[in-house]
Specification:
13% strand; 12 helices; alpha/beta
Amino acid sequence: MHNRSDQFSKNLLRDGLSLVSVAETEVEVLAATQKIDVYSVPDPARQAERAGMGLLGELSAEPSLFEPFHRTPSLRQIRQCLRKQLTWHHELERRARSVAGSVAPDEDVDAPPQPAVGFPALVVIGPGRPETVLDAYRCEPVQPGVYHAVPGLVMRVVVLAELPRTRATLLLRLLGSGRLLREALADLAALPDDTWEKSIAKPLLVHFRLGRQEPASDEEDEVSAEIRAWFEDYEKKLRAEERKEGRAEEAARALLIALRGRGIAVPDVARERILAEKNPETLERWLERAVVAASLAEVLDDLS
């Protein structure tokens, strides 16, 4: 996964899952030149939050390997994912034995049995219906757009084009392209600004510039133009906020230098307060005072 859309997919899944799990990207699988795109282990303390995440929350209810594809995956690609799943389970067993300080089962036939390590699920996500994969692994539909393979594989296949257009599937539908992505962007734009989906997706959309550069089609309408306008407006606001944060950091450094030049001691509590201040106007006001101040109390507001 090297292109911009693939990197966006991994980051979106990782950041979304991090709300309720310990999620990692590019997890190295020992003894194999392969990497898991995203590996997620659910946090039991955040079960309530997971319940509010819709389909992604359901899919992350157990330790899982997430493998998103920009195009419909082939049987060969799924076999590669299954190889990662099996190799990773072997690595988890090795780690468990290492923690327990025990030898491998084949090294000592008299060694006591070790606690079983749960077999991680494999979640394959793609835009279209992979017929050969569904047939080869006897996948059965469990809900629209979601298929389960035979139980022993612990594999779920998510077909983005078949997911219902609901909020419960929104974050996953953002992994699509073309019409799927445009519809998902429209649904995202319609949500209130304080929703968890926007907090996760919008910074990544700006970073990978997917919303603006999503190609138009003959079917593009006023909704598509509205999405692009919303995206560009959000990008401008984000850039302005970044500039404001940079200005605040510069003012905080200048203030500390000015105080040191005046020979005014700055306790740790005051230093933390200065560095935590995000309003550049406030910091610049303090800096003006520091130029002529004789004490810290003359510089900071309401210093206690």
